[in-house]
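So, does this match?
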Amino acid sequence: MLEIKRNTTIIASSHDFTYSGQFMGERKITATVESLTSIQFAEGDKCEYRGESYYLINEPTENQAYNKQVLTYTLTLTHEQYQFGRLLFKDVVPNNPSNEYYNNNTSSVTFIGNVNNLIGRIMENMDRSYAGWGYVVSDDVFLEEKQVTLIDGTCEDALKLINSLFELEYWIRNKTIHIGGTATQIGGNFEYGQGKGIYDITRTSESKKIITRLSINSSDRNIPSDYRVTAEDKYNPQLMLPYVTAKTNYIDSTNIDLNNIKEGVLENKDIFPSIEDGSGINEIVSVQAIEDDDAGFTIEIKNLGFSIEDQIIAGKTAVMAMTSGYLSGYEFDIHSINGNNITLVRNTEIENNPLPNNITAVRSGDRFVLLNILMPQKYIDIAEQRLLQWGQDQFSKNGIDKDTVTYAIKLAEEQIARGVIGHGKTLGHESKTLGASTKTLGIKGEKAVVEAEILEGNTMRVIDRKNLVDEILPIQQLTISHKAGQILPVYDVNVSKSIISSRFVDLEKAQYATEQTLAERIQAQEQENRKKTKEIKQGNFIETRYAVNGSYLVHPTLVISERNPSGWALTPPTAGTLETIWTIESEISGVTGRLVTGEWTILGSVKGTNIGGVSSENKGVWDNATLYSGTATTIDIVDYSGSKYYTRVDAGAIPTGALPTDTAYWNPFEVNHGSMATDLFFAELAYVENLGVKNLKTAESGERMEVTELANALKFLLADESLALEIGGDIYGSGQKGLRITNGVVNVDHDGSNVGVVSMDNNGISGYVNRFYSVDPNDLPSHVTLFAPCLYYNGVTKKLVFRDGDDVDHNLY
C-alpha cells in the first residue's frame, strides 16, 4: 500500500500504483486513489517508496462514474530530482571567494572545464533553494576539459550534459548524484526459463543506419594546394587516410561481407595538420602581463623547428587557436613574430571584455594549434594517422557496424518475494514471508540480490543463448506495477546491448583497407596512454567556509565529512547582536574537487561586534517552570548556582526546564581577571573607581537620557525624540556652555545668595517666574554685571525697580 502524506499526516492511500523510471531520466509513481469524500490534494504532498521521496507537483485528475459512489483520483508523484528542473542554471562558480570567474549571475553560461567543474556549478545553483544535494565522481573518471555552453537552461538541462557532453553515465540514489564508475550488480545470472529469474524476454533491434564501409568528411585546414596530387588525382581538398588513393579513401569494418557492404559518411573537422603531436611542443612557455588598454599581447612558444612566417598560406592571416585552458576554443590573429615571441591580437567579440585579460587569461602550459599555415610533411603524416585511428574507433568503440538491441525482461516476482530461484534452492533466512521488506532473490546459488537494488543504472548479467549474448548490462528502464488484490508486484526491466548481427560473417582478409606500420601503431598507442595517464595540472587549494550562530562555545551544525556542508557559506556572513562567526577549513583536491583529508577542521570563532541592538531582562534566579527565550532583540539573564547566564540570540522559545548549562540555548558570562574585554556586561551592583564613558544611553530610542562623545553634552529627550533639556556642549554655537530648555518651565529655588538664571545671549529670559529673589545691584559681586534696561527686585528697599537704558532706576510701586 502506498501512503500519500501532507507533512506527517496520511491524507490518502493507494493499492493500485505503478513505479516507472529511466536510467539518467525521469522517475515517477502513478497512483489511483478512491475515496467517498473529496480530497484536496496540493503540490508538495508526497509518498515514500523504496526509501526515496516522490512529490505531487501537478494537480491530479478527478473522476466519478455515474454508477459509482466513490471519487477516483489519478496522481503522478515525481522523484525529488524534479527540483533540478525548477531552477535556472546560472553562471555561479563554487570555491570562488574572490569572484575570479563570476559572470554577473546570468543564465548565459559558457566556460571551459571538466565534469567536476560542471557538477560543482550545478550544486552551487541548487543550494540557492534546495539544499542537501550531493555528488560523487568516481576515481576512474578522466577529467577531460570541454567547452560547456548552456543558455537559459535549467539545472536539469545542465545535469544531462554529464552524459551528452562528457559521455559519462550517472545515477541518483536518494539525494546523491553518482558520476562514472560502475553501479551495483544485481545477483548472479538471469536466464530465461522456469526457476531461472526471467519468465518473459523480448528482443528488439533498434532501427539505425549500420555502416560497414566508412568515408570521412574531413578538414581542409592547413592543407596545401598540391596535396596528394597524382596523375589520377589532380586535387584533394581534404585530409585523406594514409597510403590510399581517392577511390579507396575509406575504412572497412572487420565484420564486412562482400554481400553486405553498407557505405556511410561521418564528419570530423577537428583533425588537420598541426603541431599537436603529443610531444608538448605546442605548449605556451610564458605570457607577458596585459594592460587594459593593450590591443595585443605577447607569448613565448617553444622552438617549432620551422619558420611560421615562411609557412603562411598566401592571402591568409596566420591564426593561433587555443585547445586548452580558460580560453580553449578562442582564436587569435598573429600580428607579428620575433623568434619564439609571438604578438597576438586580443579577441574583442565580447563587448567591453577583450580577451585575454588579467582574469580570463592565457597561461603557461596552455596548448594551441596554428591555422592557415602550410605544415611540414611530417605533421601531415601524423594528421593522416590520427584520422585513420579515429575512423577505426568508430567501429571498435562506437559500434557503427553493430546492431543495438533492447531486451524487455519480466522478472519472476514470486521468486523475488520468496527468495527462491533456480533448482529449488533457498537463500537467506527460511523465515522469509511473501512481500517481506528484506526479500532477496537468489540466482543459481550465487550472489543474492536485494529486491530494493533492482534500480535503473544498476547492472545485471543477462544470458540470451539464442543470440549468443552473455553480458552484464545496465538497467535502462524499470517499471514496477502494484495492483489491488494482487499479492506480488510485476517487475518489467529493459536493458540494451550492441551486438554483431548474425548476418555478419568474418572474412580472412586484411582488417582494414589501409594498415598502419608497427611504428605508427606504437606511436598512436603511446599518445593514447599519455592521455589516459595525464596528470591534471591543477594544484590542491585550501577552502574556508563560514557559519554564524548565537553561541561562542558550540559551533553550528556540521557534518565534517560532507563536501558541501549545509549552512556553511564560502563568504563570511555579517554577525548580528551577540552572534558568533565560526570558521572551518580543509584542503581540496584540484583534480577531484573532494576533501583531501576527508573532513573539515574547525578553526575557531570570532564574536560579532554589533552589540547595540539587544535589550536584556534580568529574570533573577532560574526557575524550571518559567518560560525563557532569546531573540535578535531581547535576551533573558538568570542566576544559576551562583553564576550568571544569558539566552542565545538564536535560542527562540526555550523548552521549560532546559538548564542554563545547556549550551544549545544559553551562554555563560565570561570572566577575565585583571582586565576585561567583553561584548556584554551585566552587574546587579558595581563599584567603579574610575569610569570613562564616551557614549551613554538609558534607552535606544524614545524617552531617554544620553551622553554622546560627539555632542559633549547631557541631553534629555521626550518619547517623540524631541529635545527637552540640554546641559553643556556648544549650545549656541559660540563655544559657551549653558542650559537649553525647550517648551519647559524653569523653577529656580535657592537657600542662599548668588543664585540666578541668566541667558547666554544677554537678551533676557522670557516666560513665567514662579519665585524671584534678588539683592540690590550695588551688592552684586564684581564679576556680575546688571545690564540695562532690565527689571529687578531690590531686596533692601523691597521695591520692584525698572532700570532704563540710561541706567536710571524707576520704582514701580
About this structure: The chain is about 10% helix and 30% strand. Helices lie at 115-126, 155-164, 308-311, 377-396, 413-418, 518-532. Residues 377-396 form the longest helix (20 residues).
